[in-house]
Amino acid sequence: MTDTNPLMLYNSLVRDKQVFEPIRPGRVHMYVCGPTVYSDAHLGHGKTYINFDTVVRYLRYLGYRVLYVQNITDVGHLLDGGEDRILKGAAREQLQPMELAERYTRRYYRDMDRLNVLRPDIAPRATGHVIEMITLIQKLIDSGHAYEANGSVYFAVESFPEYGKLSGRRVEDLQSGTREAVRDEKRHPADFALWKRAEPEHVMRWPSPWGEGFPGWHIECSAMAIKYLGQPFDIHGGGVENKFPHHECEIAQAEAATGEPFARYWMHNGMLMIRGEEMHKSLGNFVTLEQAFERWDPMVIRLFVLLSHYRGPLDLTEEAVDAAERGLERLYNAIRTVRRRRTGAPEGALDPEISALLEETRGRFEAAMNDDLNTPAAIAALFDMTREVNARLTDDAALSDASLEAIDALYTRLAGDALGLLSESLDQDLTAGLTADLLDLLIATRARLRQAKQYALADGIRDSLADLGVILQDGPEGTRWVLR
RNA sequence: GGCGACGUAGCCAAGUGGUCAAGGCAGGGGUCUGCAAAACCCCCAUCGUCGGUUCGAUUCCGACCGUCGCCUCCA
Prior knowledge:
Blueprint (H helix, E strand, L loop, with lengths): L7 E4 L4 E4 L7 E6 L10 H19 L3 E6 L14 H9 L3 H18 L15 H13 L3 E4 L2 E4 L24 H4 L8 E6 L15 E3 L1 H13 L3 E7 L3 H16 L4 E7 L2 E3 L2 E2 L10 H7 L2 H9 L7 E3 L1 H24 L10 H19 L4 H21 L5 H18 L14 H19 L3 H13 L2 E6 L2 E6 L1
The structure holds one RNA strand.
């Protein structure tokens, strides 16, 4: 743990920042609503899971042992028309539902891996937990919080007075958006489905005490969170757009069934916008992560996301992401130089001024992060440190190995471990031995040309390499190359 | 209509009741370089509008304008 101010988190449940105190000392149990795996993950998923990955990373940075559960929704998440997203996707791609779910689950993790989003410790699938859901639903029926109607089961919102406490809504104010067909089955328009009767043509179906059917979307998260994290647990996260009804319903189900509180801290992240508009297929501004990666390095996307506060909306424009790209390059350049300098650096103790700089940076970083994960302010501390480090690297070339090692270590810990911003992208110019040897040959040749003042030829080599994506940088210690 | 969020420099984005405000990108001027690149130094904002509270507000309150989210099972 640290010696700075305590970790404060904004808790949607109380609409204020609170000192974070885990239920079990030193441990954190955390749940985040995972994706519905019916198509490729998009930039919005990227923001959400980067945001919560950063929460997990920082908690671990602080020394907590974190148990992170993020589900995979592979059934029950319906479209407006009542069609199951998974079934629709399966029909679209002529696959069995589970083939589809498997395909997009793998692609989801592939994209998240590239964004340096750590995989959850447990990734339960909804279809693997139908028994737990049925058990929970039965409990709700037995306790009078749910009722069966024509093979479907609904939660009775009027039986749970606290319904609405997360989203600030009152049952009386809720409009009924329910489709005509099922409106008659409900006792109250705001009642929501726990279990749905499967029509004959519905492929995804399970036997239950109420006949063949499938679970509602909300009950999945309650059942899986309780199973793996216990009740109550520490942190529940998700996109703000799911605050109502999804999270509100999760609370109602879990707390009505057991009488125990569900999650202590509710964290909601803001949505990603594209040029001022919500990203939506119908607006034609839908960008999958795979598409975005063709344009930008995943770490650029990650930095861009962390450059704004997780709770706010984030408006993506090409200009803004390009700016983040340049910023990342600046950070990487400094780290690369520090690491290179370690070869052949003079022995010696850690420079007291460097030590002070690193301590100050660490303090500012932690103070910012402890204030409800203020990543923009934390990153500002890193950039300030980078300016100082660069100045030292240019001015006197005599930084001791101990100093360089300490700088490297802090970058690794803050930018790498806590923010997840360092990946193989950083080391890309250290790859491919043969390529590096050939480049060294070219650089040596160019050096001779420069000595002979054959600048036109020397610049020609530099320009040609630039076209291939290799940037040459001449410095007092010779020429270095980096990939762009 | 109900609930909620936001409006800070050319772009993105933190933040604070009282030396009129981080950081990144872009831009201008320097240093360094054969020229570049990288890097460093300097410059570049009165905080949506109008009121109010206060000795003093960008930061607190109200109204208005604007943008956005949820309510209609998108992360």
